[in-house]
């Protein structure tokens, strides 16, 4: 198993009104991901100049169209790398469970997503902790759809988040 080093990223708070707030901070090695993103952008620029330059040297011919799938492939991988790099560098999450509503906000710089749903729609909450500890996260299922909370959490944080969410979403007896 790989070691789960680094500072804690998860904080859990119980408010006076009974609300539960779970916050997941960004990774501590965010600077490394920014450098990796810059390197990937430089590699993308080089490959783009190699594959796109024939289109501008001479009039477009049907022989040059063979390069279009390569350009699409490179663009696809670049956008995947940008999304992963932005999330790993700047991604934060906040979960608020209050008055029977589950509110989950994810943000990475200018990319923000919010999910709100009644607690009763949550069918299951599961921990996913592979042997390598590199993608520990919590999954919850709503209407047959799985969603991931947290990315690269420490193993103890993964269990803690799942336990807090299970207790907060359990029907009161």
Furnish the topology, listing elements before pairings.
Elements (H helix, E strand, L loop, with lengths): L9 E5 L5 E5 L5 H23 L1 H4 L10 H23 E8 L2 E8 L2 E8 L3 E7 L8 E6 L2 E5 L5 H15 L4
Antiparallel strand pairs: 1-2, 2-3, 3-4, 4-5, 6-7, 7-8
Helix pairs in contact: 1-3
Instruction: Compute the CA-based radius of gyration.
Output: 21 Å
Overall shape: elongated
**DSSP, total strands:** 8
> Segments where pLDDT lies below 50 for 5+ residues?
none
Give me the number of helical elements. Answer: 4
Strand content: 25-35%
Secondary structural class: alpha+beta
Please list the strands of the largest sheet in the order they lie side by side.
1-2-3-4-5
Into which percent range does the helicity of residues fall?
25-40%
Task: Provide mean pLDDT, rounded.
Answer: 84
Beginning-to-end CA distance, first to last residue: 40 Å
Tell me about the biggest sheet? 5 strands, antiparallel
Give the SSE order as H and E letters: EEHHHEEEEEEH
Question: Overview of this structure, please?
Answer:
- With 173 residues, the protein is an alpha+beta fold.
- The protein is 38% helix and 30% strand.
- The chain has four helices and eight strands.
- The chain has helices at residues 30-52, 54-57, 68-90, 155-169; strands at residues 10-14, 20-24, 91-98, 101-108, 111-118, 122-128, 137-142, 145-149.
- The strands form two sheets. A five-stranded antiparallel sheet has the order 1-2-3-4-5. The protein has a three-stranded antiparallel sheet with strand order 6-7-8.
- The longest helix has 23 residues, at 30-52.
- The two termini are 40 Å apart.
């Amino acid at each position: 198993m790989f070691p789960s080093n680094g500072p804690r990223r998860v904080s859990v708070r119980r408010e006076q009104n009974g609300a539960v707030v779970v916050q997941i901070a960004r990774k501590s090695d965010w600077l490394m991901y920014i450098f990796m993103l810059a390197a990937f952008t430089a590699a993308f620029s080089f490959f783009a100049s190699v594959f796109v330059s024939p289109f501008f040297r001479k009039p477009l011919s049907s022989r040059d169209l063979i390069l279009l799938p390569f350009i699409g492939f490179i663009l696809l991988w670049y956008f995947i790398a940008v999304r992963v790099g932005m999330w790993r560098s700047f991604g934060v999450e906040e979960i608020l469970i209050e008055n029977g509503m589950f509110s989950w906000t994810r943000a990475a710089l200018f990319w923000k997503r919010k999910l709100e749903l009644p607690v009763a729609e949550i069918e299951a909450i599961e921990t996913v902790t592979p042997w390598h500890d590199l993608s520990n996260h919590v999954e919850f299922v709503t209407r047959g759809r799985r969603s991931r909370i947290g990315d690269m959490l420490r193993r103890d944080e993964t269990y803690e988040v799942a336990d807090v969410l299970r207790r907060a979403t359990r029907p009161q007896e």
